[in-house]
Design the sequence.
């Protein structure tokens, strides 16, 4: 079966600076893939290309078999691609409830969104009328994940889920990711710190200097990681 | 007592009109972070359109209002968003302000071209019919105004809090890119908020026309009243904005009712919004610094001192040559170009380096001219006095907005200009009611030729001063403050006084130019320094390039040529201003302006002349490649 997300020779960058120099990557249907790599490797840029925030300057992006180079971010989101960008991806001056209400743009019904979100994260129900900006970092990330849960996407892209969060919270969030994958959602997780992501992943890829240097099972990649990050000594 | 009730009713009704206008302003500002200076002008154009449909085309009033508020205005708002505002997302506040000033000028130009100035009496809806509450008479039109305000209040509250698109409007301020990742069509969201804002501006303009009169400027300046009301709600809170609007309406009504009707206070009614605004600014809490905003604007290269001196000498030489080649009248025109150039130079440190916008620079020019005229001296010290007085007033204007962000400062200059127009310039302290003053020329210079040279030399001296400022420590502080206020605060810079000094400096230069202008014209009147004249000045400064002395020279000459063009082709009339508006919309995004392209042309030629091949043997001879 053809992978749900496929990148072939993708190049992209900012202005005249090219960050991705021909990336090949395939995310199998229903898999959780961890995309690892050191600072500045181009992980976030890759997610931006896939989510439609920047346009690839070369190569092809296929989503669900369709060629999606240059598709707008909002169209991709409505088509079933859920992106949780780096940092706290909530609207700080809106209440928790209003944040969830906006999730319905991706096609879910409001009642379902509230129901799913508040069932999985009871803490959010307690804070439904509080401004999202006044939540703790972990609660904000829960709110972001609740959107992913409630809108039932085909593909989920998550950037640096663990950034600045307590290990316990990170574990809880990755349980949600694993649960989504069990329901058939294909997930691409970008992480700089590999362990948490590799624990739930069934595939992994390593991006260094804008190129994918290795792909494989999480165990192989885990063993190789130090060499891949630092480069082999000749 | 009966008078009191009547004034209260009038105040509440006018306040209701302001509330409609102000809520539209708050809506567009809080959902797109662009303060629309043209808000009143949109209302003005739409009020004219409504007049056209009812009086000229004979449509029933209800249909005309429905067409204008429901169709024409939203289309105009959405179009403005589509063409101009979409590219301004994340642009510095000064840039967005200038672009909406361009829209304001454009709309006034268009209105003047389509509906030439004549008296157009406008009947209120339902004529003068109405009913009595106790001793006060309330017309049905008054009732419509209050009802409109209530409907708008309820409608906006429902839209913003109960609907998904309302939540999306608020979300787009927080993070537009994220909203797109949620799947919302963000362009639709902002177009809708602009469409609603424009519709509210139109409704307010139409409702207030019987009160204000169908006038280009008075309706366009409705933005000041709306802004004054909105400041009470800190440009965010709709309920507080409504309170502010009602207070403003009442203040205006009581002022008219109870203050003695002397000549000195004749302009007071129109000046009340400005006074109200200053009071609201003084009482509003201090703005917090937003961290993490770094908005660098690449400037133009600063010439070396020697290069600037040479350029200045060439400019004075060219002026001297031109003074012999041209007849006397053209000499005066050219001198005027240089004087305008100095006014534009006053904007270079303020807007170009500091990133602050003054919407009323001509007012400071007027203060300078009045000072010289009142002193009645031909001594050069008169010019320095003009600069000093203007600088003092400039510092006073900056004070109320000292604790607030740049936007409030820019808009308080707008109110200040209105205040000076309506109260001070018309008073016996300055020009007197519809009066004019004669100004002695510097050192008794009679000839046009000599005066032209004085103006050219003055431009060069001020220009060199501005360049020296740019190279100084103070100049670096200005740039740093513009790019990252939070960064400057953590370094321990006192930004308040830096701001006041900057404003005083800019006003001082403008006042100096005012002294020169007075001497050039020899007779000056209040109409020479009106607020509305300041807006094309600001636009041309930005279009020509507000970050460089060369830009100021170019802009000054262009401003001088503008009325020449308009009088040479009277058929064009407002179209000239329309064109300036269009140009600023196109070019306003780049503060370095037209001259920066000329600079690039110069650099390209230098590169073309560069021959590295000839250099290699010379270097080898010097032993570099050994």
Sequence:
């Amino acid at each position: 079966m053809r992978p749900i997300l496929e990148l072939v020779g993708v190049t992209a960058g900012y202005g005249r600076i090219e960050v991705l120099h021909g990336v090949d990557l395939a995310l199998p249907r229903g898999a959780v893939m961890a995309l690892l790599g050191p600072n500045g490797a181009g992980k976030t840029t890759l997610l931006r290309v896939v989510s439609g925030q920047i346009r690839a300057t070369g190569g092809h992006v296929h989503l669900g078999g369709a060629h999606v180079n240059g598709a707008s971010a909002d169209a991709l989101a409505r088509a079933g691609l859920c992106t949780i960008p780096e940092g706290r991806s909530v609207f700080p001056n809106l209440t928790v409830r209003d944040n969830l209400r906006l999730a319905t743009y991706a096609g879910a019904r409001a009642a379902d969104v509230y129901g799913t979100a508040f069932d999985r994260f009871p803490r959010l129900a307690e804070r439904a009328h509080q401004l999202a900006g006044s939540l703790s970092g972990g609660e904000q990330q829960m709110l972001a994940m609740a959107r992913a849960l409630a809108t039932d996407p085909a593909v989920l892209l998550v950037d640096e889920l663990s950034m600045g969060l307590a290990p316990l919270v990170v574990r809880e969030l990755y349980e949600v990711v694993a649960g989504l994958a069990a329901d058939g959602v294909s997930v691409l997780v970008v992480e700089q710190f590999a362990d948490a992501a590799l624990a739930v992943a069934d595939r992994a890829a390593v991006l260094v200097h804008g190129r994918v240097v290795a792909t494989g099972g999480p165990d192989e990649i885990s063993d190789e990681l130090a060499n891949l990050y630092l480069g082999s000594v000749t | 007592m009966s008078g009191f009730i009547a004034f209260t009713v009038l105040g509440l009704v006018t306040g209701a009109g302001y509330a409609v206008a102000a809520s539209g302003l708050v809506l567009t500002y809080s959902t797109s972070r662009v303060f629309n200076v043209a808000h009143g002008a949109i209302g003005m154009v739409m009020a004219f359109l409504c007049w056209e449909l009812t009086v000229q085309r004979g449509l029933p009033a209800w249909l005309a209002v429905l067409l204008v508020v429901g169709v024409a205005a939203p289309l105009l708002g959405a179009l403005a968003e589509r063409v101009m505002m979409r590219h301004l997302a994340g642009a510095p506040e000064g840039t967005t302000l200038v672009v909406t000033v361009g829209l304001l000028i454009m709309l006034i130009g268009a209105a003047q071209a389509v509906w030439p100035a004549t008296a157009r009496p406008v009947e209120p809806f339902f004529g003068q019919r109405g009913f009595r509450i106790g001793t006060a008479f309330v017309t049905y039109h008054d009732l419509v105004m209050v009802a409109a305000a209530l409907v708008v209040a309820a409608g906006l509250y429902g839209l913003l809090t109960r609907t998904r698109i309302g939540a999306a409007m608020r979300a787009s301020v927080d993070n537009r890119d994220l909203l797109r990742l949620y799947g919302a069509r963000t362009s639709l969201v902002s177009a809708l908020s602009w469409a609603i804002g424009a519709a509210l501006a139109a409704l307010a303009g139409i409702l207030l026309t019987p009160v204000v009169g169908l006038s280009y400027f008075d309706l366009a300046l409705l933005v000041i009243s709306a802004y004054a009301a909105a400041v009470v709600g800190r440009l965010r809170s709709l309920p507080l904005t409504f309170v502010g609007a009602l207070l403003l309406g009442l203040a205006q009504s009581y002022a008219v009712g109870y203050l003695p009707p002397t000549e000195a206070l004749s302009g007071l009614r129109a000046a009340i919004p400005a006074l109200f605004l200053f009071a609201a600014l003084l009482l509003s809490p201090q703005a917090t610094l937003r961290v993490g905003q770094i908005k660098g604007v690449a400037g133009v290269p600063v010439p070396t001192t020697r290069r600037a001196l040479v350029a200045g000498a060439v400019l004075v030489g060219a002026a001297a040559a031109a003074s012999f080649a041209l007849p006397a009248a053209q000499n005066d025109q050219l001198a005027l170009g240089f004087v305008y150039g100095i006014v534009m130079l006053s904007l270079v440190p303020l807007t170009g380096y500091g990133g602050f916008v003054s919407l009323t620079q001509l007012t400071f020019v007027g203060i300078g001219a009045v000072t010289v005229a009142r002193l009645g001296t031909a001594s050069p010290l008169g010019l320095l006095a003009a600069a000093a007085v203007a600088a003092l007033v400039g510092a006073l204007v900056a004070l109320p907005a000292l604790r607030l962000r740049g936007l409030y400062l820019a808009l308080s200059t707008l109110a200040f200009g209105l205040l000076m127009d309506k109260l001070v310039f018309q008073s016996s302290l300055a020009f007197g009611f519809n009066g004019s003053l004669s100004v002695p020329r510097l050192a008794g210079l009679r000839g046009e030729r000599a005066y032209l040279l004085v103006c050219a030399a003055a431009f060069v001296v001020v220009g060199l001063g501005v360049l020296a400022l740019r190279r100084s420590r103070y100049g670096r502080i200005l740039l740093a403050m513009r790019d990252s206020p939070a960064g400057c605060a953590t370094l321990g810079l006192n930004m308040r006084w830096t701001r006041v000094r900057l404003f005083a400096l800019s006003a001082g230069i403008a006042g100096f130019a005012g002294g020169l202008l007075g001497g050039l014209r020899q007779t000056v009147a209040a109409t020479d320094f009106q607020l509305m004249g300041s807006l094309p000045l600001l636009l041309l400064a930005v279009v020509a390039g507000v970050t460089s002395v060369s830009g100021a020279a170019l802009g000054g000459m262009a401003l001088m040529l503008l009325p020449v063009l308009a009088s040479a082709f009277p058929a064009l009339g407002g179209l000239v201003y329309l064109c300036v508006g269009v140009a600023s919309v196109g070019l306003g995004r780049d503060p370095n302006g037209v001259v920066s392209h000329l600079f690039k042309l110069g650099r390209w030629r230098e590169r073309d002349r560069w021959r590295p091949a000839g250099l290699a043997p010379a270097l080898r001879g010097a032993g570099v490649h050994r």
User: Anything to note?
Assistant: Residues 2-32 of chain B form the longest helix (31 residues). Chain B has 26 helices and four strands. Chain B has two domains: 2-257+264-283, 305-529.
